Structure formats: structure tokens, C-alpha cells
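Task: encode each sequence below as C-alpha cells.

Item 1
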Amino acid sequence: MFYKTFAYSFNQMGGQMMEYRQRKWIVVAARLLIVAITALLTTPRVNAAVSTQTTRQPAAFRAPATSQTLAVQVPNSQPKQGFIINHQSVALFEQIPDNYLTAAREMGVLFSDRSVGQNIHQALNCLTAKSWETSSASCRRDYYDAGWNWKVFTGADRSKGLVPARILFDPDPDKYSRTNWTFEFKAGSWSELTQDFIQVLAPAYIDSKDVLSYQFGYLNVSEGSDIVDPTTGFFADNADKYDVYDLEAYIAQHPDKVFVFWTISLARGIGTQASTDFNNQLRAYALEHDKILFDMADIVAHTDQGVACYDNRDGVEYCSKKGKCENHPDDGQELPAICQDYTTETDGGHLGSVSGAKIRIAKAFWVMMARVAGWDGSVTSSVTPSSTVEPISAPISALGATEIPLQK
């Protein structure tokens, strides 16, 4: 667990957690009593009464989870209008109609993460430059040979056709203005990040933003993390942690806002099994509960040519420009990981030294926001941008409880 970095004090937080746990178990006990009385007076069927303070269903009312599945019966708190943004969505960036770009940039947006989120924040700024040649050097870096050497590409390189396509873009300070889009750096365990989003971050922006989200980073799936545990993880109904049930309860209180779910960022070697399990779990959850999912993991785990990338436990040596090397033995598994094309790190997954992933994610982010504004993804969309933040794309699944696979 990481030390808390939130604005409130440790003692205050402890008091909030104790009060939360007491309230939570009182609600559970009351519901169990109602169920028992109902069973005696009417039928053996269990009715999950909804508290006036929460829309959650306690664990006692759910089918028991196994090592292979996790029962998730969180009520859907948003309209049935979800969609998924993945590596195939990047190509839609140049096709976004101007009216949907306008609608997207006029929305108030909040997204939060730690250092990888800072990379994305910088990437969105790349698109606001006056020209590609005058954009920040961090927007124009990439590998240039088979020895994994990289450099800052220039306007002269572009005129000669030497710039890799994945870092090419046509910026516009007005067209891609993200003045209304705010990034907040946050660090902590997955439970702490969820608690902070519910109690601090989202409430601070709920009146000024239309679209709100936060993301877990690959450090949240390092060795020892319980994020995918069927009884203590993010998709479990915990008495002593903040999880998806708490998140859904908060979302249900704000039906006029759009909440985006993110897959976890990927590294070359940190937490690959846990990240694979969590991301598969979240994709299934998004489909079954009709959520908007920004599948960042899928974007960084595919090259710009669409080739899938896997972890660095492959027996292939990699040495960075600074001379740091890794040559982990092949473990016989192929777990999705950030492509070496997108990071200069041996085991990590930051997007700073080379720009390919940053630019592709920034483009995908704009595609997502255009979709939130009502664009259906087609070039000749005739639908007028929505006057509200409610996405109007077709639903991707039916509402209801589902069994979410924990493993591939």
C-alpha cells in the first residue's frame, strides 16, 4: 500500500473509514433482517432492498465467487450508451467532424492519474501547438534505428519523409484547445485512489465538469497487489476498502454527468499478470454494464501497425540509450505489455522519452470526447452534437448482473 497523499489528515481519514464501515455493516444487517422476515411471511426468494444512502447490493445477496469468476451485480448507474475506445479508434482522429470537435472542446473534462497521466496531459498539449515543427521536443521524439537509439525529429526530417508516422500530427491551438480539460496528479493504492475520487476529487469538480474519470497505474498491479482478488479486490464488495460498488453509488448520485472507466496502464515487466487479469475483468464489466471505456492498455499494447506486444520475459535483450539493459529469460507466456516502441524503460512504462504512445493516446482521447458529444464514428455523421453531455451512441450491451471472468 502506498502512503496516502490526499489533502485530508490521517486521523480524519481514519474517522471517515470507521464511520463508513459501521454504516456499511449496519445497512447489511438491516437488509439481512428484512430478507429473513420476507422469507418467513412470503416466499423463499431473496429481495435485495436498496438503501436510501446507497445503490449497492451487499455481498450476502450475491452468488459466491469462485477462483474463475467474480459475481458483479452492481446496478448500472448511467444510460445504456457505452462504447469502447481502443487501438483501432486512433485512426478515427483525422475523421472527426469539426462540429463534434467544437462540442468536445466545450465540455468540461477531468481526468486523473500519476506520472503516466502526466505524460498524457503533455500529449494533449502537443496537439495545441502552432505547428508540428514548433511543438515541444517531447512531442517529436522516437527511435530511428534497430539499436533502439532515439532523437528529436525536426522539420527538416519531416520534409525528407524521415519522421515515423506514429509521431506525426497536425496541431491547432484553437481546434484542439483543451482549456476546459483538467488533469490532476494523484498517487496511492487502488482503494485510496477510489476513495479520493469519491470524497475529494470528483466533488471538487462536479459542478464545473461534464466528464470525470480517474485511472489506476501499473504500480497498482505490482507484486502483492490484491486488485484482482475475488474477495478483497476492486470488484469485491469490501467493508474496509473503496471499490467499484462505492464508485457506482457515487455515479448514481450524478446521472447528469458522464463517468469514464480506464484500463490500467501497462509496463514492460511490472505487474503483467495482474494487469492482464484486471484489464480483462474491466473490459467485460464495461460491456455488460454499458460503460464508456478508454482502453489505454489496448492502445499501448499494439504498435501503430496493429501488432500486439507482450512482456519482456522473452529472452530478448534490450538496452536503452543510457546503457541500462534487461534480458529476462523466456517464461513461455505472452502477457500484453506496452510496446518497446513506446517507452525507453527496461521494465517500466512511462511515455516520456519517446512520443509514439503519447500522440496516439492523445488522438484517441479526442475520438472519445467526440463520441461523448454524440459522434457515431462515421465520417458522414448527420447527427447534431448533443446539447448535453449525454452520449447518444448505440448501446453495446444489455443491462444487468453478470459473471465477470477473472482469467483469460
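Item 2
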Amino acid sequence: MTEQMVVYLFREAFYTTLLVSAPMLLLSLIVGLLIAIFQAATSIQEITLTFVPKIIIVAIVAVLTLPWMMEIMITFTVNVFNQIPGLGH
């Protein structure tokens, strides 16, 4: 296994991780920002007001994007497994 192959695998793994987690992270960020604006406008400082909606949004987005996420992860895994025979050189 060459250094280029290791760098390629790490880069692809990192890209896949970012791609799969991006929808949940972005929507959680947007919901958190909207709730923070609401809290600042109303002077309500309740911790669970930010925590519970974020958890609900992340769960909904995870369920809705699960087929897409699985497709991305399966494609990555198949590509890695297909490269295994060439690693012995």
C-alpha cells in the first residue's frame, strides 16, 4: 500500500463522513440559530428549548435521508472492498 493510496482512502472516508452528516448538522444549526434568535427576542433562557427541537429535527432528517445515506456508505464500502486485491502489490 502506497502513501498515495492511504491519503486517498482517508480523503474519501472524510468526504463520505461529511456528506452523510451534513444534512443533520446543517438543519440542527439552522434550528439552533432560529431558537437562539427567539430566546434573545423573548428573554427566555430555557436550556431544553434548544435541545429538544434539535433532537427532534435530527431524528426526522435521519429517517428521511436514511436511504440516501445508506447508498453513499454502501458505495464507499464497495469501493474500498474492490481495492483490497490491489493492496498486496
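Check on item 2: The radius of gyration is 19 Å. Helices lie at 3-42, 48-83.
End of task.
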